[in-house]
Amino acid sequence: MAGQGPPTNTSVVQTDAEERNIAVVKEYMRIANSPTGNKGRSSVAHLCTEDSVFEAPTTFPGCETPLDYADSHSKVMSAISDLEITSFDIVFAKEGHVLLRYSAEGSHCGQPHNGIQATGNRAKWHAAAIFEVRDGKIYSFTKEWDKVRLSNDHVLYFTQSQPGN
For 26-35, 121-130, 136-145, which range has the lowest pLDDT when averaged over its residues? Predict the structure, then answer.
């Protein structure tokens, strides 16, 4: 696995197998959320089972696998080209399940997104993900992300910059 990455708050003692599962999940998140490292599904395929599943209907409709998510998110990464996961706020595993809540920030400083030119708007947000890891690979990924907060704050690519914002 790659470098150390952002700070991590692991709240409970984990077994060696649970630590390995956490490492797989953090590596997937590091790649999928990297403006330079996420080139779509090929970037994360080595970390996922062939029959993997993904669920996040409110934020990534149409994505059915973690590979689909990587494809979709690579387009977001081209718009938020300075995105950074600043911390893994809560991380713990129980057998094959890993829960990860993370904080991130970035600005719409890259390519247009959904027809909107870069606004320069910057935002910070939190999201949570639940993974199931089987035999050292991600089988399932469920994501919850408060995208409404970003839109209401008139940030990133969800709205055009407003005078005074």
Answer: 121-130
Task: Tell me the C-alpha distance between 107 and 121, whole Å.
Answer: 5
In the structure, what pLDDT confidence band is assigned to residue 4 with cuts at 50, 70 and 90?
Answer: low
Count CA atoms within 13 Å of residue 96 on its CB side: 10
Residues 142 and 127: beta-carbon distance below 8 Å: no
User: pTM for the whole thing?
Assistant: 0.85
63 within 8 A of 72, measured Cβ to Cβ: yes
Structure tokens at 97: 């399940």
Closest-CA residue to 22 (of 163, 117, 132, 149): 132
Three-state secondary structure call for residue 29: helix
